[in-house]
Specification:
Number of strands: 18
Strand content: 5-15%
Number of helices: 20
Largest sheet: 6 strands, antiparallel
Helix content: 40-55%
Shape: flat
């Protein structure tokens, strides 16, 4: 069936191949020629701000989810199909009912990604026949697991069986990296199904995967491969599967990771799963994209539907799509349209959405909305210092916990009461609450801060031009607070970077200097926080506190470095300087004795004048040598004392008067550089933990 309704001039102009029912073109809902100028693509910030001040609402276009396969796409489309919604395709065809929708998706599926999602993690039953519940055999089993899963992340728990034997229950990341000499080789395990009996398939490791593991076990332990049992469970995809498998593993007792970490609670499992994330090399095809385009309740639904139609036809002209409008949330304050788009177009080019795409989509939709007489303008949350952002997954988590779904009540209640899910549910609830209260946005990066500065300047100008506008005044104040908070956060970030470097090429930053800077930063944070609104102050202190904590950790590390680690690193240099000092002292003493002997020789009665002159020359040379040795000894001893007292203070360049001390000075500089590099690596590791 074709679309029925009023004449749509834009649709007739842009899509001449799509006709209305009975060949009668739709009619425009408003007179486009008399509508105000469109504030669309490329409009300056001041124009968008004026529109908001005049009562325009921000354009909302967001991606809800991506799906792989026809089943998921059909499920989403059938959810959109309701009594008040009519699904319309890119060809202008109406779809009503499960059969029509599934038939359309089946056509789409012919161009879907043929690859399956990656197998990232699975539980494994691991047993070596003949091993008993003794400390020695448990060690052998652990050694066998370490050999089988070398280069892979894994966690395990060893169980004692009723017959006295033992087995391990493990969770293994299938992607791994093997180190062979100077070469890294990537490896991935695979699970397949083996026909066992009529109608029964058993999961097993792929032959190559199993052969590699068993060969490594045999080489490491000498155990015959016929004694090794490897039984994989259902493989999962992505980080959530890691959390799921690790949670199941520790339900029947504490588990341990390959790094030795104890996994006995939800927090430990979350930390371990984050450590695995970068090693998963996960892949999940995207076949369809689910968009939501929304507006406030009270608008002309027909005009909104026409605007959405124009937007998707222009933006996704080369893609297959369908959309439908829902009005059931009007009581909650909004009307919205669901858009399902095939990610791959007719030429095989896929959609890779990013920030620039979303901005372009908002601008395109806003243009079509304004052409239908709707007061909608494209703007960003950053330009309004807005923090309204949470995902549909957050809402689904909280809804399942607070309002169990019909037919799944027991499962949803069990999910909500499971302590392992408490942190996940609390975080989702917190993000939703933040979006509802909408605290002031706090930019941190240079790009975000630049947007905040431009927005504050623009809204301040608009508030001066239109003092009667409550919107302009409120947003001028809001963006000014955002600018102040963002500048404070940016200062903390910059200071965190500065403490990794030196204040000059000759003098590294010290713990005392870092502590002084940290005190000033704490005072600055307190001053900014004091002027922020109450609903934003707590979030500001929480966020700035993370950076202050990071800086405090660096001060402690620098203090410890100055007190201990550098002394150990420079011990050879200090000892060498002490040795030089001892040699210089011995030579000075020898020179002094030479003087004494020479003077003693002059007291004897000379045989002739020539002997007297020779003795005087000897005395002068001996005294000059002794004086030089004493002066050199003083320099060396003072240098040795300085190195022993504060080994991290770079030796003075004046020590180069002695070639041996110049060598020491260069050695000290090299040691200091090496220690600084090691300290920076440790700092980065601590930063990663703090951010997580």
């Amino acid at each position: 069936m074709t679309i029925t309704g009023a004449e749509d001039e834009e649709k007739r102009r842009r899509l001449p191949d799509v006709s209305a029912k009975g060949g009668k073109p739709p009619r425009l809902s408003v007179d486009v020629g008399s509508s105000p100028a469109v504030i669309g693509r490329g409009a300056p910030l001041i124009s968008r701000a004026r529109a908001l001040a005049q009562g325009y609402q921000p354009a909302v276009v967001k991606v809800v989810s991506y799906a792989h396969g026809a089943a998921r796409a059909s499920a989403t489309a059938n959810y959109v199909d309701r009594e008040d919604a009519i699904l319309e395709t890119q060809d202008g065809v109406e779809l009503k009912g499960r059969a029509a929708i599934n038939g359309e998706i089946a056509e789409w599926a012919k161009d879907f990604e043929p690859r399956k999602e990656s197998q990232d993690v699975a539980g494994v039953r691991f047993q070596v026949m003949g091993l008993k519940d003794t400390p020695g055999d448990r060690g052998t089993l652990e050694k066998a697991m370490s050999a089988a899963f070398v280069g892979h992340r894994y966690a395990y728990r060893i169980n004692a069986l009723t017959d006295g034997a033992i087995e391990a229950r493990a969770v293994v990341a299938f992607a791994g990296t093997l180190r062979e000499g100077e070469t890294d080789t990537r490896e991935r395990f695979y699970v397949t199904e083996r026909h066992v009996a009529e109608g029964f398939e058993a999961r097993v490791f792929a032959p190559k995967s199993e052969a590699r593991m068993k060969a490594r076990i045999e080489a490491a332990t000498g155990i015959g491969q016929h004694r090794i049992v490897l039984e994989p469970g259902a493989p999962g995809n992505g980080p959530t599967s890691v959390v799921d498998r690790l949670t199941r593993l520790q339900e029947h007792g504490a588990a341990a990771s390959d790094s030795g970490a104890l996994l006995d609670n939800a927090s430990a499992i979350q930390a371990e799963s984050r450590a695995w994330r970068r090693d998963l090399r996960s892949f999940k095809p995207r076949d369809t994209m689910h968009l939501i385009v929304s507006t406030k309740a009270g608008v002309d639904v027909g005009a909104f539907r026409t605007a959405v139609r124009g937007f998707v036809h222009e933006q996704f002209a080369a893609h297959k799509f369908m959309f439908g409008v829902h009005t059931d949330k009007a009581d909650a304050g909004h009307v919205h349209a669901h858009v399902i788009v095939a990610v791959r177009d007719a030429e095989g080019v896929k959609i890779h959405s990013g920030p620039q795409d979303f901005r372009h989509w908002r601008e395109t939709f806003a243009e079509h909305a304004q052409m239908q007489g709707l007061k909608i303008v494209a703007t960003s949350a950053a330009e309004r210092a807005s923090s309204q952002s949470y995902g549909p997954k957050d809402k689904a988590i909280v809804d399942a916990a607070d309002h169990p779904r019909p037919g799944r009540e027991a499962r949803d209640r069990a999910y909500a009461s499971d302590p392992a899910n408490k942190t996940l549910i609390d975080n989702a609830r917190r993000r939703i609450e933040i979006a509802r209260t909408n605290p002031i946005r706090m930019p941190a990066s240079e790009r975000q801060l630049a947007v905040a500065n431009d927005s504050a300047s623009t809204w301040r100008q608009l508030a001066q031009e239109e003092p009667q506008s409550a919107t302009a005044s409120a947003l001028a104040q809001r963006t000014q607070f955002s600018q102040a908070a963002g500048q404070a956060i940016a200062t903390l970030v910059n200071q965190a970077l500065i403490t990794q470097t030196t204040r000059s090429s000759a003098m590294p930053i010290t713990a005392a200097q870092m502590g002084s800077d940290l005190k000033l930063l704490n005072e600055a944070v307190d001053r900014v926080g004091a002027v922020l609104p109450a609903d934003t102050r707590a979030a500001f202190f929480e966020r700035s506190g993370r950076y202050l904590e990071k800086l405090a950790a660096r001060v402690d590390m620098q203090r410890e470095f100055e007190a201990k680690s550098s002394q150990a690193a420079l011990a050879p240099v200090v000892e060498q300087s002490a040795g030089i000092a001892r040699v210089e002292q011995r030579e000075a003493i020898s020179a002094q004795r030479l003087v004494e002997r020479a003077e003693t020789a002059t007291n004897a009665t000379p045989a002739d004048a020539r002997d007297i002159d020779t003795s005087r020359v000897i005395v002068r040379e001996a005294r000059r040598t002794a004086a030089g040795k004493l002066a050199g000894t003083h320099v060396v001893v003072e240098a040795q004392r300085a190195l022993t007292a504060i080994a991290v203070e770079p030796a003075e360049a004046s020590l180069a008067v002695d070639p041996r001390l110049e060598v020491l000075r260069r050695q000290q500089a090299e040691k200091l550089t090496q220690s600084a590099a090691e300290r920076e690596a440790t700092v980065k590791a601590i930063e990663a933990e703090i951010e997580e």
